[in-house]
Amino acid sequence: MSAQPVRLPVAPLPDRIREESPQHLRSVIAEPQKKRSRVVVVSAVLVGVFLGLLGIQLALSIIISSGAYEARALKVEERDLMRVERVLSQNMDKLSSPQNLAANAAQLGMVENLHPATLRLSDGAILGTLETATSEVRENRVPNATLATLAPVDAAGLTADQSAAKSQAPATSAPVRWKGKLPAPATH
To answer: Which of 39, 78, 79, 141 is at a distance of 20 to 30 A from 163, taking alpha carbons?
Structure first.
């Protein structure tokens, strides 16, 4: 017996498959190039996203640091304004002190009523005499050194020149030097 190959009957391909078959053929060389181009695109997108995130982080850092500089500047400004407020408050306390008011009243020609009269509201009685008994302005017995530099107020309410304040300031003697040892508590 001789061995002859057996041929099976082959059915003809339909027309539709014959026409599509050339379209389904692809080059084996083109496949790695497409993968490579996809990798390049994906990596470029990832690098772009990474650089974008770095840029956003840098912008946020700049904004935060500028806010810190503004906060520091505002704290310095607040400190300076508090100092100015403290100085103005001290000057206002000096100007509203009874000694300063009495000195300015005397400068304006006002004198003190030694026997003032008062009115009792419950029955309308007048206590004291209505005749005023005034005297000359008396000097302040306890001088206030902080008022020596303040100028008196003139009749219009404005401060007069500094020369009048200096001439009105009492003359002080030189400070007395301490003699002997400084007093200190006894310690163990």
So the answer is: 141
Residue 104 contacts residue 150 (beta carbons within 8 Å): no
Tell me the per-residue pLDDT of 99-142, one tens digit each, with 9 for 90 and over: 888 878 877 777 777 777 888 999 989 888 777 666 666 666 77
Burial class of residue 129 in the structure, from the number of CB atoms within 10 Å of its CB (0-12 exposed, 13-18 middle, 19+ buried): exposed
Query: To which H or E segment does residue 46 belong?
Result: helix 30-95
CA distance 150 to 183: 36
Give the Cα-Cα-Cα angle 124, 125, 129 (nearest 5 degrees).
Answer: 135
Q: What is the reported pTM?
A: 0.40
Cβ proximity of 89 and 101 under 8 Å: no
Cα–Cα dist 83/118, whole Å = 44
CA-derived radius of gyration, the chain = 52
